[in-house]
Design a protein that fits this description.
The structure is a homodimer.
Chain A: H1 5-18, H2 25-34, E1 42-45, H3 48-58, E2 62-67, E3 80-84, H4 87-104, E4 112-117, E5 123-132, E6 136-143, H5 146-151, E7 154-158, H6 163-170, H7 190-206, E8 210-220, E9 225-227, E10 230-234, H8 247-258, E11 262-266, H9 275-285, E12 291-295, E13 301-302, E14 305-306, E15 320-323, H10 327-340, E16 344-347, H11 358-371, E17 374-376, E18 382-385, E19 390-393, E20 401-408, H12 411-424, E21 428-433, H13 442-450, E22 457-462, H14 468-478, E23 484-488, H15 493-503, H16 510-519, E24 523-524, H17 528-537, E25 548-553, H18 556-568, E26 572-573, H19 579-586, E27 599-600, H20 607-619, E28 625-631, H21 638-654, E29 661-666, H22 670-680, E30 685-687, H23 692-706
Parallel strand pairs in A: 11-12, 11-15, 15-16, 16-17, 20-21, 20-22, 22-23, 23-24, 25-26, 25-27, 25-28, 28-29, 29-30
Antiparallel strand pairs in A: 1-4, 2-3, 2-4, 5-6, 5-8, 6-7, 8-9, 8-10, 13-14, 18-19, 18-21
């Protein structure tokens, strides 16, 4: 890509030297020229021949205007001619304009005639760039005009953006159809627009002092795109970049922390009700097999484990230190941990940034940096890692092993995760509290869980991302291998205000979060309950091999609601059903049952009808996923249905036919037991809901598409 | 309002006589003129004086054009002059044009000069009308232009529309801000636009043969609104109107059906597994106190009740007949019911429209009409009416009395209602299956529940509304008294297709449903589970007396998510918190707790902190509703919190301080018991969800606003 970096450097250095922070229009134009961003051509002609040459060079048509300090009202003076369509015409226009000007004011000083490319209609669009507090340089695209401003129809990508990113932006706005040519109009030149987006994104990345940039409007047409107006704002004092260890170092530290050979409990206690007592109990009763070292200023032994005055007195190596001491003692103990070479500090204590004690927290950050200790918290409940039987927390123990790793920024949400998990029998590999996130952040956890074979799905609740860019980069890679689910709190303006009074963190622009998360392949949960349902259901579903979804239902009414849910969740029903497949389904259902899709087997059918139709759905290779709508009847009771479904699916699995299946159960309370049985056998199933099972299947599809598996 | 109905009648009669179905542009203009809808003025001038008079009469500026069969290229001939700003100028223009024309073609036949009002910029909008299969005449409003077409930004109201309806439409589009003047532009004349909407809505109501109408574009400006193009399509063979008894008759019949003194079971049986046996069992075991008459061709007695061969043999009056016989026997038995003067037939049997047997269903409709029997179904599970201990159904009995009346079009959804109710201990007054809706429809039920003192909230699942207009009219009135919740299935195109294969009913345009339901004051549930949660939670919440919502939370993280949910559900947080109130809250919470709104009392607080802050929230008259975010800790266990909250609320209630309170509980599984306890004491509370309690509060507010109580 042709880029004259030296030219831009020169302009920006001059700007800085001048003490200004925004470029003038001509300076902005020069920057655009240097980066190959098309702006309207213009030039000053001193003769008819020059006018002719300029016009031919910049592309016709052109508009020509007298340039004279003595002529203010150019039009009145006959000093403006628009719509000049040829070089010859430009030469004649030069003479006409000069003659008119002289006639208008004989003694006027004439500098020449400005020749300017005329922008021709087309679709007005905007390309811009901003510097986000969390994500850094972002490039933006939207339609131009007042209406679009009112509708706030704009989309963002991390800068620099690839050509593919840029093209995806053109489809990423609500009014994307406008670019494709409506009412018989021409489509805009997508390549030209994508080119501008890429160039803007590179410009702001190459020159970090460019804080904001607007090309508004750009006129996009069939033939190309021209930026009619340029606005560039600089910030020569950007905030320092976040310290971030190398990925290999992060993974190494995180492995020691999450799978420690030895854990110290700083502030361990024999006294019931103390946090240091709860942590000891959870470590011991949770079944942790490594060394446990209680640290206490006086006691020689705590709960059967030899106690030490300091971690430095412990003979062997320690990987993880859990802190259960008052805030004011943390810094001292942390220094000792550093001197001991401990990998990670689990900082349960509160009393830092969340209470306004930013200095105290900063002190910890500096100690951690100095000794290369990674810190979880402060202000957290700790963490669970079930494969190591590790409950490094003061909360109640949790031991249902599974493949979902969860984390929460907030302690309350962490407790909700534990309660839901226990109630819904959700298997988890880890639950981690991140609290104030003085150090360990969502991206550190992603790096660990990426290479952790015990984890198949990662679900994270967060209020902000301290380093959204690092998160996005890691998530983009990890989400190709494992579904990443994020509940971003503080989505709305009211929510964001609460986030900022809660953690002191500025919640970012939600549209930016939304775009970045999607581009990173992350599944964004809309609610706490949805995050939990996704965390529970997504890992047990096999990955679909294609887009064709079929609904098989005993309740026609469920079929309608399940169809609604499919559209809401981006699922594609196999439609029209191929004739032979339709006929095959019809063989199993009553003549008045509706085939097509949903396959409505009708309510009064015996278990065999569910089995036959589901077996067909699993066997036929044109079908890639099934949604079941069960209707509780005397003929087919809930547990009979549930066992039969598991039997058919296992039978097909033995034949190598594995497809995602979810179920919605309508019926009396017995359907709850059936739903749990189905879940425990690999079928996310919900009683009294036609939406949740489809949302879960939709999430699996969203992930599979983003990961390039579909 | 000035309306020349005779003129429109004359034009439409002429259209009908001509065999056409669409009006020409001049005819459309005449219709607009007759109804006072402003269209651009125009006329043919045969002299300069006439031109002058025409121009002055229609409003300036005008454009003038030569009218001659011999001049095709008017502009080339100098036959067009635009922007004529005075009557004098018009006279001169007439002469110029005629002179130019003669010079251009000496022998041209000149008919005169057309004088046409020039439409001046402004905002392009569209007003139109359609005839919907369910709702009948609808008036539509949207912005004009391609972009808005792409975004499908349009809103509908039932025609005729009131002035208030029309004004609400201007605010009812996504891009409403465009009408208010953006970037310093003028706001459009709202009165003029509303006037056109009202006039169009009256026109199509006065002349039902107008099937579709478009005024597109209308140019709306500060000074007024002019329809530049008119399109009117007629249909002279409209479908016949639905038969509908008088409201008093409906209520009378429904009262007999829902609270019968005597019930006949046609097809009663002693044999377990038969529908007629289940119905008998449910009637008897459900505790129904009225007369039960089994009808059976042979048995002299069934389950201890004397049986009869026909309802006609029963000595006393019968109000309700429950049918449990094969489809082919229904018509005969129904005729006997008619002869016996029975008020209602509960048609459980399937085998009618849902299996393609439309004739069979039509036969029932005719018998019902003839004898004035109201029919529920066919193809239903029956109904429950708990105040009468009446389980007129073959499903399992349900006896948890309460104040929500539910209905479902689908049997499967009915079963889900029963299961959810039992599981969540939701009190209900009625559950009704409507099935094929051959006769009794959602609006009949609304009329009954409106006057039923046992019912406080009505929740209905439907796939279509056979007579949407009747529903809307009744719902608009009923919803002023009692919240009406509707789950409209077949929302999306995929869903609608399933609906039509299921019931043979064409699901209407969802945007029309959405607008009409909102205008009728109906709360539209987004999902089955949401309908059920609303049905459970909305009736127990007191009606708020103002818009100021305060969140009190132990978990800061919940506070952020609860704030998000407030915005999502249209709730207004009291912000900024008045200084004295903020100070009052701060007295109860730790110094590092965040006051403001959410009031973050922090996680480690004892029960008294929750009590003090909630008491303050209930006492202060500037606060109208509370959302509680509880965080499970050892210091404040779930049931302690729950009991304390109920105590504080009861204490305040005794002082006449009654406000809606909902709660989100984050914690281990014990929070589920606490949530149920809170619900049973008037506080909708949910474990592991920050969204559902806020959605329920949002629904209550939505209702209160629509009912004019706020």
């Amino acid at each position: 890509m042709n880029k004259d970096k030296a030219k831009v450097r020169q302009i920006l250095d001059a700007l800085r030297a001048s003490g200004r922070d925004s470029l003038t229009a001509p300076e902005g134009k020069q920057v655009c020229d240097a980066y190959g961003i098309t702006v309207p051509g213009e030039g000053l002609a001193k003769s008819a021949a020059e006018a002719s040459k300029l016009a031919a060079g910049m592309g016709l048509p052109v508009v020509m205007k007298i340039v004279s300090p003595d002529i203010l009202h150019k039009t009145e003076a006959g000093g403006v001619i628009v719509g000049i369509k040829s070089a010859d015409e430009a030469a004649r226009a030069y003479d006409t304009i000069v003659a008119n000007a002289k006639r208008y004011k004989a003694d006027a000083k004439l500098d020449g005639v400005q020749v300017q490319q005329m922008i021709q209609g087309g679709q007005e669009v905007i390309v811009g760039a901003v510097t986000d507090g969390s994500f850094g340089k972002m490039v933006a695209f939207g339609l131009g005009g007042v209406l679009v401003e009112v509708l706030k129809d704009i989309t963002f990508r991390l800068a620099p953006a690839t050509r593919a990113d840029a093209l995806s932006m053109l489809d990423g706005i609500q009014a994307a159809e406008m670019l494709k040519g409506v009412r018989g109009g021409d489509a805009v030149n997508r390549e030209a627009l994508a080119d501008i987006i890429v160039r803007v994104s590179e410009l702001v990345s190459d020159f970090p002092e460019i804080a904001e940039m607007d090309l508004n409007p750009i006129f996009a047409s069939k033939s190309g795109a021209v930026a009619a107006d340029v606005r560039i704002l600089c910030n020569f004092n950007p905030k320092p970049a976040r310290h971030r260890p190398a990925e290999a170092d992060i993974v190494k530290s995180m492995n020691r922390i999450m799978k420690p050979k030895a854990v110290a409990v700083i502030g361990a206690s024999d006294e019931t009700g103390k946090i240091g007592n709860s942590v000891m109990k959870n470590l011991i009763n949770g079944g942790y097999k490594g060394q446990i070292y209680p640290i206490h200023p006086k006691s020689p032994e705590i709960m059967g484990h030899k106690a030490y005055k300091s971690v430095k007195d412990v003979p062997g190596e320690i990987d993880t230190a859990v802190f259960a001491i008052p805030a004011k003692l943390v810094a001292g103990a942390l220094t000792e941990c550093g001197e001991k070479g401990i990998a990670g500090a689990v900082l349960i204590p509160s009393g830092f940034a969340e209470t306004g004690n930013h200095e105290g927290q900063q002190e910890l950050v500096e100690i951690g940096r100095k000794y290369n200790i990674r810190m979880m918290g402060p202000n957290i409940y700790g963490f669970y890692y079930t494969p190591a039987n590790l409950c490094a927390t003061f909360c109640t123990a949790y031991d249902v092993k599974g493949s979902t790793a969860l984390s929460s920024q907030s302690g309350g949400i962490g407790m909700a995760i534990i309660g839901f998990s226990r109630s819904a029998k959700m298997g988890v590999s880890a639950i981690v509290g991140l609290g104030n996130k003085s150090d360990i952040d969502e991206d550190d956890l992603l790096l660990y869980f990426e290479q952790d074979d015990n984890t198949k799905v990662i679900a994270q609740h967060c209020e902000d991302l301290k380093d959204g860019r690092a998160f996005a980069e890691v998530a983009k890679r990890v989400s190709k291998k494992k579904p990443v689910i994020v509940l971003k709190a503080g989505r709305t303006s009211a929510g964001a205000a609460a986030a900022s009074s809660h953690t002191g963190a500025l919640a970012g622009n939600d549209k930016i979060y939304d775009d970045v998360l999607r581009q990173s392949g992350v599944i964004r949960a809309k609610s706490l309950r949805q995050m939990l349902d996704f965390a529970r259901g997504v890992p047990i579903l096999p990955t679909p091999k294609g887009e064709n979804v079929v609904i098989i239902t005993g309740a026609g009414g469920s079929g309608v609601l399940l169809s609604d849910a499919c559209v809401d969740n981006g699922l594609k029903l196999l439609k029209p059903m191929p004739e032979d497949l339709d006929a095959a389904f019809r063989k199993f259902i009553p003549p008045f049952g509706a085939a097509g899709n949903p396959v409505d087997i009708t309510g009064g059918e015996p278990p065999i009808t569910y089995m036959n139709t589901v077996r067909l759905g699993l066997e036929d290779e044109r079908i890639h996923a099934l949604i079941l709508g069960y209707w509780h009847t005397i003929v087919t009771p809930p547990m009979v249905f549930a066992r039969n479904m598991v039997q058919v699916i296992d039978e097909m699995k033995a034949r190598g036919l594995v497809k995602p299946v979810v179920a919605s159960l309508a019926g009396d309370v017995e359907v709850e037991e059936a739903a749990q049985y189905l879940y425990e056998h690999g079928i996310p199933a919900y009683a009294y809901s036609t939406e949740i099972p489809v949302e879960i299947l939709g999430a699996k599809y969203q992930w599979a598409r983003a990961a390039g598996l579909l």
